[in-house]
Design goal:
Layout: H1 3-20, E1 21-23, E2 31-33, E3 38-47, H2 54-78, H3 88-94, H4 96-107, E4 116-117, E5 122-130, H5 138-142, E6 169-170, E7 173-174, E8 181-184, E9 198-200, E10 205-207, H6 214-220, E11 224-226, H7 232-238, E12 243-246, E13 249-251, E14 257-260, H8 262-275, E15 283-286
Parallel strand pairs: 8-12, 8-15, 9-14, 11-15
Antiparallel strand pairs: 1-3, 2-3, 3-5, 4-5, 6-7, 9-10, 13-14
Helix pairs in contact: 2-4, 3-4
Length: 287
């Protein structure tokens, strides 16, 4: 298709939309909800006021509202923070695979509830795209280029003889194991990201997506975010006997990476060798 013909087709499509519906959506309704794990967007549009058939007018409004919701969802997804430096928009500019998957996923998203119709003839449609999940998620698109890459082993602790607390009971069972990791970053301004990295204060990464089964990263995410070490999110993710360490700092352009002491990083790595909570993404960050 020539450039001139393509421009003509686009102009015609725009003219049709203007004749059939009016888009009215409020961009403030488009959000990234880390607590619920979804990206949400609303589309709002009215049918052509000159259409005498009310059924046709509602159909026009619904079609336009859906298109508006998809467009707004795409913009909201672009704003998802992938790591401490990059957003989904950055990733989509770099990778055709990611951009194509995001676009296809948005087109196939189911609507949340039923369309809402108002007395003035407008229709409102809401779409939600999960951040994590084996199907139709932001993570599925994000990590697509890495699905066939082999895992990188966790680093070895600097001090293999370091002593860690011995668990005597987990759920009443003597000799229980650590069920997860809680890194307390409270008061440090930690931000939610899809792909965080835990580092020690020698700037050595000890936990990142390259160390993990990418399918687990896509389905569960690398970590949950909680308000305290004892809240429901922590208990659900890190279990009833997590290893709890206090971060010494957070780093990254948007402060997405917890930093722990070398001694605590050694504790984490030694404990994980036997209990494998990092391998299972049983990690919680307290904000």
């Amino acid at each position: 298709m020539t450039s001139k013909l393509l421009k003509s087709c686009m102009a015609f499509a725009t003219a049709v939309m203007m004749l059939t519906a009016t888009v009215l959506a409020d961009p403030a309704n488009n959000t990234v909800d880390w607590e619920k794990g979804v990206v949400r967007a609303t589309g709002l549009a009215a049918g052509n006021a000159n259409t005498k058939n009310k059924g046709l007018q509602r159909a026009q409004a619904k079609r336009a509202a859906r298109m508006d919701a998809e467009r707004n969802l795409a913009e909201a997804v672009e704003g998802v923070q992938v790591d401490s430096e990059s957003t989904m928009k950055d990733l989509m500019l770099e990778s055709d695979i990611v951009r194509t998957r995001v676009s296809a996923t948005i087109k196939g998203m189911s609507e949340v509830g039923n369309p809402k119709y108002f007395e003035d003839g407008t229709c409102e449609i809401t779409l939600e795209m999960p951040i994590f999940g084996a199907k139709n998620s932001v993570a599925k698109a994000t990590f697509a280029p890495y699905e066939n890459e082999p895992k990188v082993p966790f680093p070895q602790p600097a001090n293999t003889s370091i002593k860690i607390d011995v668990n005597t009971s987990v759920g009443g069972v003597v000799g229980g194991k650590y069920t997860g990791l809680v890194v307390d970053c409270s008061g440090m301004g930690l931000e939610s990201v899809m792909s965080p990295v835990i580092k020690n204060d020698n700037n050595q990464p000890i936990y990142g997506y390259k160390n993990l089964d990418i399918d687990k990263v896509i389905e569960y995410g690398m970590a949950s975010y909680a308000e305290s070490a004892n809240d429901a999110t922590s208990r659900a993710r890190a279990g009833n006997n997590p290893l709890i360490v206090k971060a010494v700092n957070v780093d990254g352009i948007i402060k997405g990476n917890p930093v722990v002491s070398v001694a605590d990083s050694d504790k984490i790595l030694i404990a994980n060798q036997s209990d494998q909570f990092l391998d299972d993404c049983k990690v919680v960050f307290v904000k």
